[in-house]
Amino acid sequence: MVLTKQQNYWQNLAKQFAESEVKPKVNEMEKQGEFPLFFMKKLGELGILGIGFPEKYGGQNADSFSFILAVKEISKVWASLGLSIGAHLLGTNPIYFAGTEEQKKHYLIPLVRGEMLGAFGLTEPSSGSDAASSRTSAVSVNGSYLLNGRKVFTTSASYASTFVVSALTSREKGKKGISAFILERNYPGLMIAKKEEKLGLRASDTSGLILDGCQVPKENLLGLEGDGFRVFLQTLDAGRLGIAGWALGIAEAAFEQMLDWAKKNEVDSGLMDEHEWEAGMIAEAATKLEAALLLAQEACRVKDTGQFYIKEASMAKYFASTLAVEVCDAALKIIGCSALTNDLPVERYFRDAKLGEIGEGTSEIQKLVIAREVLKTSGRLVPA
Amino acid sequence: MLVKGAGISFDLSEDHLMIQDMVRKFAEKEVSPGAGERDRSMEFPRDICSKLGELGLMGVNTPTEYGGAGMDSISYAIIIEELSRACASTGVVAAVQNTLAQLPLYRFGTEELKRKYLPDLAAGKKIGAYCLTEPSSGSDAGSLQTMAQKNGDFYFLNGQKLFVTNGMAADFFIVYATIDKSKGNKGISAFVVERTFPGFKIVRKEEMLGVRASGTAQIAFENCRVPVSNLIGEEGDGFKIALTTLDSGRISIASQAVGIAQGAYDAALKYSKERSQFGKTISNFQFVQEMLVDMITYIEAARLLVYRSSYLKDKGVPFSKEASMAKYFASTMSEKATSHALQIHGGYGYTKDYPVERFYRDARVTEIYEGTTEVQKMVIARNILGG
Ligand SMILES: Cc1cc2nc3c(=O)[nH]c(=O)nc-3n(C[C@H](O)[C@H](O)[C@H](O)COP(=O)(O)OP(=O)(O)OC[C@H]3O[C@@H](n4cnc5c(N)ncnc54)[C@H](O)[C@@H]3O)c2cc1C
Ligand SMILES: Cc1cc2nc3c(=O)[nH]c(=O)nc-3n(C[C@H](O)[C@H](O)[C@H](O)COP(=O)(O)OP(=O)(O)OC[C@H]3O[C@@H](n4cnc5c(N)ncnc54)[C@H](O)[C@@H]3O)c2cc1C
Q1: What pLDDT score does B3 carry?
Q2: B233 burial class (0-12, 13-18, 19+ CB within 10 angstroms)?
Q3: Where are the extended beta strands (E) located within chain B?
Q4: Which of A237, A358, A368, A370 to mutate to test the pocket of ligand 1 (most atoms within 8 A of CB)?
Q5: Residue A197 to residue B352, Cβ atoms within 8 A
Q6: pLDDT in tens for each of the 384 residues of chain A?
Q7: Between B233 and which of B45, B108, B112, B360 could a Cys-Cys bridge form, CB atoms 3.0 to 4.6 Å apart?
Q8: Annotated active-site positions of A, please?
Q9: Are strands B217-227 and B200-205 parallel, antiparallel or unpaired?
């Protein structure tokens, strides 16, 4: 794959940082479930959190693929850190997309610089794939909104300084009644609920939010009342690209373990007579890794032209996250039982990867989105 | 004259159904409740082993004269499936206890060894383990390095064993070692080693992705002193004993894989009927139905392969190919089924609030132990191609 100078720069910077500073800490921090707050600050200082944002908001003004490559390199070393970046972006992008200049100055700039940590609360106990069925309510009282409801699975909630959350300003209007708000951690009535114990990504924090008459100043409404759903969909498009990069990082990491094993066991010297099974798995993974990266690159290209890239983002996310699970699986198989112990990182990759098929829209939802988009354009994948 | 329905039966006998019902109830009451906690703490299910022993489920195929239950292989497959459906660790613990630890003794041991070791194992009073795998010898068991040197009334064992299921809790170990490396497979011999023998050492507990409560250990022998009478069969019989044991062991693991998948399927089916999105239960969505349909179709096919190989084993005819087919099919099926089950649970499936994430981790090892999938394919290929 040919990269631009800019893309090379960000990829290398992220890689160097991940290899030299993050890697030595991963095993211990992941085992202890220690949140990588320190590294998030560092990523802000390095500019990595701001790759895709304009300079006037503290960003680096670089292209989308530069960012995806950086996320990939970091996730390759530590998926929990990669996911923290993803969640931070979910908590940052809505402000960039819909915020006033005042909100941008106050929140966006410190978020882009990594001085604040962002989180995103959309999912609720009874509203997951069906994000439009949100039940959290927002009632306007004396220059404030009072929010009541519960959020679940809010990544980084226990450490975030700001939260972008959805709430209904009008129950009758359905989707069009959903609004977006910026909440600060110390607002009265905002509480952090139970932290989830998970299959993987133990150092990433996944907690609930309880909004019990949480008082939010009027100025913290994002966009207009009823704009929320549109803003969230736009946020998720960008987020899905991030998950594609994240999943690709895990897939590449598992692939490298496979290759290490194959080299150690001299698979290449007996490809045809003794090792065709392994050769098949390696070839399949290598081919799909290239394809997945190309899908992500294409989605980034479309995004940067300013057009809709819903289909492209979903395809990139769906393909890369399926692939990550597949490659981890193949790595476990090829390497055998030593890969099942925590002496090797493969079992961690395997546990982490599965989230890609669930978070920011399950694979089933991606398929529905892709089908809807493809049918809309009468099935033409490439614009005529 | 063809008689309708003759020659093939898909019905379990009354006895089999009774055993199934008994073990299912036991598993629901005694095994399932602590499974999540044992997975977390990696605590070996020692109490459950005792209870299984009291029920006659720790020496299922072991002859009654040595304290076993003397049941058939289908009963055994049913038992391992039902235990694994509740807790895969308990499933493999029981499988190793039943087959890997006792079969070498009741098939190849002297009368003295049988009397000495089998009754306590079959009663669940003592725990057994099986030591074949070494750091540089996994699938290729013939290349093992552990040495056994005879000196007077004792063999002295030196070497290292890995991934010994039950190892942390076991009292007796079936250990494979070579008396003469130059003899290759023909030098391999099998011994019963007691934990208290001088020179026996537990090196560490393995921390693993799945079956975390199975007490899997690394073990070292440092001039470990084993009485000559603890040799199983003759010197050089070890390889044959290992292969014979593994043929049966494959049926156990296939049963375990079916049980894990069934447990995951039960949970997913229930969840799909409770969880609503877009105004209906998710069981209404074709993508969800597709996953459920896939799961149960493959589970049932795998179970039939397990029953067939068990049936052939009981008939006393070769069943090595069929056991490998059952293990190959059931373990790959189990991985897919547990992945579907997690997926159907959405974000909740990724948490420890539901058992599916445990099933998802536990299923992986069924493709690896007692011969990897690749090794099963080799066995099947050899059988169908000859040579
Ligand atoms: C580790 C982690 C981090 C997360 N981080 C965040 C975060 O920071 N912010 C946030 O807001 N959320 C977050 N989430 C939530 C995540 O986005 C949701 O879990 C996801 O969208 C799925 O929703 P659900 O869990 O309610 O599953 P459900 O929607 O209940 O889905 C259950 C099953 O039904 C299927 N299904 C649902 N609808 C359909 C349909 N129409 N057709 C076919 N199949 C269907 C799904 O594909 C799935 O298999 C996180 C989740 C996890 C596990
Ligand atoms: C949880 C657990 C419990 C276990 N319990 C026990 C136990 O109680 N007692 C015991 O002795 N062992 C036990 N084992 C070990 C297990 O049986 C071995 O791990 C297994 O036989 C594979 O060996 P290996 O991991 O060394 O892989 P290897 O033999 O190194 O194989 C690695 C890879 O190479 C492939 N491969 C190997 N040879 C060939 C070939 N000729 N052609 C093509 N592909 C090949 C394999 O399929 C695999 O993909 C356990 C393992 C685990 C993980």
Answers
A1: 72
A2: middle
A3: 128-131, 147-151, 154-164, 172-178, 188-194, 200-205, 217-227, 231-232, 276-277, 280-281
A4: A358
A5: yes
A6: 899 999 999 999 999 999 999 999 999 999 999 999 999 999 999 999 999 999 999 999 999 999 999 999 999 999 999 999 999 999 999 999 999 999 999 999 999 999 999 999 999 999 999 999 999 999 999 999 999 999 999 999 999 999 999 999 998 998 999 999 999 999 999 999 989 999 999 999 999 999 999 999 999 999 999 999 999 999 999 999 999 999 999 999 999 999 999 998 877 777 767 788 889 999 999 999 999 999 999 999 999 999 999 999 999 999 999 999 999 999 999 998 888 988 899 999 999 999 999 999 999 999 999 999 999 876 555 554
A7: B108
A8: 360
A9: antiparallel
Question: What whole-number distance in Å separates Cα of residue B187 and Cα of residue B193?
Answer: 18
Position in ligand 2 atom list of the atom nearest CA A337: 25
- Which candidate, B173, B167, B176, B158, places its Cα nearest to that of B204? B167
The residue-averaged pLDDT of B30-34 equals: 98
Q: Which residues contact B21 (CB under 8 A, 6 or more apart)?
A: none
Distance of CA B265 to the CA centre of its chain: 20
Sorted by where each begins, the domain ranges of chain B are 11-122, 128-236, 239-385
Closest Cα to atom 26, ligand 2: which residue? B138
Calpha distance B52→B59 (Å, rounded) = 9
The single-letter code of the amino acid at B258 is V
The closest of B194, B77, B53 to B128, measured between CA atoms, is: B194
Interchain contact, A347 vs B208, CB within 8 Å: yes
Q: Which fold has domain B11-122?
A: Butyryl-Coa Dehydrogenase, subunit A; domain 1 (1.10.540)
Which ligand lies nearest the alpha carbon of A344?
A: 2
Are the C-beta atoms of residues B192 and B174 closer than 8 Å to each other? yes
Is A199's CB within 8 Å of B287's CB? no
Give the closest-approach CA distance of B93 to chain A in angstroms: 17
**A384 vs chain B: nearest CA distance in angstroms?**
31
**pLDDT of the residue at A384:** 43
Using DSSP, state whether B1 is helix, strand or coil.
Answer: coil
Look at strands A221-222 and B147-151 and give their pairing.
unpaired
Which residues of chain A neighbour B372 with C-beta distances below 8 Å? 333, 336
Taking the C-alpha atoms of residue B162 and residue A338, their distance in angstroms, rounded to an integer, is 10
Separation of alpha carbons B99 and A279, rounded Å: 35
Inter-chain residue contact A128 with B210, CB threshold 8 Å: no
Closest to B189 in 3D by CA, of B249, B220, B149, B152: B149
CB of B133 within 6 A of ligand 2: the answer is yes
ipTM of this predicted structure: 0.94
A126 touches chain B (CB under 8 A): yes
- Residue A182, SS3 per DSSP: strand
Neighbours of B120 (CB within 10 A): 18
CATH architecture group of domain B239-385: Up-down Bundle (1.20)
Q: What is the CATH number assigned to the segment(s) B128-236?
A: 2.40.110.10
DSSP code per residue over A215-243:
EEEGGGEESSTT-HHHHHHHHHHHHHHHH
Name the DSSP letter for residue A48: G
Domains of chain A with bracketed CATH: 5-112 (1.10.540.10), 118-226 (2.40.110.10), 230-377 (1.20.140.10)
B368 CB near a chain A CB, below 8 Å?
Answer: yes
